């Protein structure tokens, strides 16, 4: 077991057995800063209990194995999304639907689904393809690009802002707020980001009340629960979560995927030679590119798999590790497009499965179809390992690419 | 071959229909609505592939004798 620094050892609550304590910080550990899926998996899957307690960042449980996690995420009566069971998530406004349990959760999903169900998303394909082409055509002649800033932030964020109905001119401001939330370990910084986003949304909602449009902002403003109107807090909470989800996650996953392909030219060539393969290869690439870290609070004292959970304990789920869980999949670190099934949980599991998953899959596939059509081979511009960052959403932080024109 | 879908467990990943489009269909919200359906003849392998891809393990297939297929 990793020795716990004396300075924080005293903060470990009495009900936590010493054998289940492992010192790991998913914001700052060296393992999250380079090849995090492999490095963190090698550290935790080999050395830590499947569910362990870290005293970092105020202290919480971490779940590293897919089978355990999927089972826990279904037990909403024991492991709740409600902020009342997780002091660290007592945000104002609570983020919805993520911070709600069924049945309210089901109603919130119903409100958002018309823009995110597979059918409506499929109608966006031509727009998504045009945008991918425009962005790639812009960087291609230069023979290089800063992928994150010039492509990965622009592409999904532009699509999201169009669906949401927010002006493109607000992109940089909104991305900055989202990043403040996803990379900050402290409650105060994350609350500040949420407040900024809620303030932004309040203004937008006012505009939509006056002048409705065919967009997500209008849909939220006009939405109702079965027996009542939505409260202002609920409207803000729905918007905050969607904006955080839409502004930071696809960018991060796409950057991991492209970073992998830049460093594995033989795999990339397979996609160039056979674009029809991209759809299935995507799942294998997603398997090693998960980014998000959902959290739950324990609703009452309970024992689960011999672990003594106490009411109010925080539980953090490292979905990033489930696709590289050697109990689920053979040779987990090897990307192999010929695998029968590329099981992964990049979009989570259970009732809170990422509502944007269909849109994200469309974006990844169309982007790779267009990238492979334009660029037949590419590489990392600098011959140094790609730096990555941990946090609520993991991401590469610098990814400059080069190709021959 | 018959399809059983645990609709309570289905989380709308929609991978069944993506991987086995001749077998599984989705409702308007993107959740599998093939519960109780019979797999079209000749599509048995596709049906198994789609079921294996379900991250929630919500799909179980049964043979003509009512025995679970693994």
What series of H and E elements makes up the topology of chain B?
EHHEE
Backbone shape of chain B: globular
**How many beta strands in the DSSP annotation of chain B?**
3
Please state the oligomeric state of the protein chains shown.
heterodimer
Major pleated sheet of chain A: 5 strands, mixed
State the separation between the terminal residues of chain B, measured CA to CA: 12 Å
Could you spell the SSE succession of chain A in H and E letters? HHEEHEHHHEHHHHHEEHHHEEEEHEEEE
Assign the structural class of chain A, choosing from mainly alpha, mainly beta, alpha/beta, alpha+beta, or little secondary structure.
Answer: alpha+beta
Structure description:
The complex is a heterodimer of chains A (405) and B (70). Chain A has helices spanning 6-9, 36-47, 66-74, 104-116, 118-122, 125-139, 147-152, 154-164, 171-183, 187-210, 216-222, 232-263, 265-273, 278-287, 357-374; strands at 51-54, 60-63, 79-80, 144-146, 224-225, 228-229, 295-298, 302-304, 307-309, 314-317, 379-380, 388-389, 395-396, 400-402. Chain A has 405 residues and is of the alpha+beta class. In chain A, helix 10 crosses helix 12. Chain B is an alpha+beta fold and 70 residues long. Chain B is 21% helix and 14% strand. Chain B has 2 helices and 3 strands; from the N terminus they run βααββ. In chain B, strand 2 and strand 3 (68-69) form a beta hairpin. At the A-B interface, loops of A face helix 1 and helix 2 of B.
Descriptive key words:
heterodimer, A: 405 residues, alpha+beta, 3-stranded antiparallel β-sheet, 14 strands, B: 70 residues, 2 helices, 14% strand, globular
Quick take:
Chain A has helices spanning 6-9, 36-47, 66-74, 104-116, 118-122, 125-139, 147-152, 154-164, 171-183, 187-210, 216-222, 232-263, 265-273, 278-287, 357-374, and strands at 51-54, 60-63, 79-80, 144-146, 224-225, 228-229, 295-298, 302-304, 307-309, 314-317, 379-380, 388-389, 395-396, 400-402.
SSE topology:
The complex is a heterodimer of chains A (405) and B (70).
Chain A: H1 6-9, H2 36-47, E1 51-54, E2 60-63, H3 66-74, E3 79-80, H4 104-116, H5 118-122, H6 125-139, E4 144-146, H7 147-152, H8 154-164, H9 171-183, H10 187-210, H11 216-222, E5 224-225, E6 228-229, H12 232-263, H13 265-273, H14 278-287, E7 295-298, E8 302-304, E9 307-309, E10 314-317, H15 357-374, E11 379-380, E12 388-389, E13 395-396, E14 400-402
Parallel strand pairs in A: 2-10
Antiparallel strand pairs in A: 1-2, 3-7, 4-14, 5-6, 7-10, 8-9, 11-14, 12-13
Chain B: E1 2-5, H1 15-19, H2 44-53, E2 59-62, E3 68-69
């Amino acid at each position: 077991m990793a020795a716990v620094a004396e300075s924080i050892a005293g903060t470990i609550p009495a009900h936590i057995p010493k054998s289940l304590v492992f010192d790991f910080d998913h914001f700052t550990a060296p393992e999250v800063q380079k090849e995090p899926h492999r490095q963190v998996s090698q550290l935790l899957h080999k050395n830590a209990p499947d569910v362990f307690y870290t005293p970092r960042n105020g202290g919480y449980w971490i779940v590293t194995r897919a089978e355990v996690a999927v089972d826990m995420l279904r037990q909403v009566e024991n492991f709740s999304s409600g902020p009342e069971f997780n002091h660290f998530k007592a945000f104002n406004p609570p983020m919805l639907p993520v911070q709600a349990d069924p049945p309210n959760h089901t109603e919130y999903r119903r409100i958002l689904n018309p823009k995110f169900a597979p059918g409506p998303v499929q109608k966006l394909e031509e727009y998504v393809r045009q945008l991918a082409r425009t962005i790639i055509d812009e960087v291609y002649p230069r023979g290089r690009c800063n992928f994150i800033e010039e492509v990965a932030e622009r592409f999904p964020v532009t699509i999201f802002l169009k669906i949401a109905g927010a002006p493109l001119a607000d992109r940089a401001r909104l991305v900055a707020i989202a990043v403040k939330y996803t990379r900050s370990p402290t409650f105060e910084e994350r609350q500040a980001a949420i407040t900024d986003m809620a303030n932004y949304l309040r203004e937008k909602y006012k505009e939509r009340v006056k002048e409705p449009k065919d967009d997500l902002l209008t849909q939220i403003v006009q939405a109702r629960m079965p027996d009542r109107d939505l409260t202002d807090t609920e409207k803000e909470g729905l918007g905050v979560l969607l904006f955080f989800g839409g502004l930071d996650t696809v960018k991060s996953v796409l950057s991991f995927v492209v970073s992998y392909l830049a460093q594995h030219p033989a795999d990339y060539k397979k996609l160039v030679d056979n674009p029809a393969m991209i759809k299935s290869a995507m799942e294998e690439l997603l398997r090693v590119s998960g980014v998000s870290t959902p959290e739950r609070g324990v609703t009452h004292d309970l024992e689960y798999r011999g672990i003594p959970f106490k009411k109010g304990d925080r539980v953090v789920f490292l979905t990033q590790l489930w696709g590289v869980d050697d109990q689920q999949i053979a040779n987990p670190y090897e990307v192999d497009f010929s695998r029968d099934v590329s099981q992964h949980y990049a979009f989570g599991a259970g009732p809170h499965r990422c509502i944007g998953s269909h849109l994200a899959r469309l974006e990844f596939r169309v982007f790779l179809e267009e990238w492979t059509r334009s660029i037949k081979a590419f590489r990392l511009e600098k011959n140094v390992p790609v730096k990555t960052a941990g946090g609520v959403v993991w991401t590469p932080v610098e990814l400059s690419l080069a190709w021959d024109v | 071959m018959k399809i059983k879908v645990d609709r309570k467990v289905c989380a709308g990943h929609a991978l069944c229909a993506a991987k086995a489009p001749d077998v599984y269909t989705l409702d308007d919200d993107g959740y599998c609505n093939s519960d109780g359906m019979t797999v079209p003849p000749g599509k048995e392998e596709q049906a198994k592939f789609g079921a294996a891809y379900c991250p929630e393990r919500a799909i179980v297939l049964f043979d003509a004798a009512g025995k679970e297929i693994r």
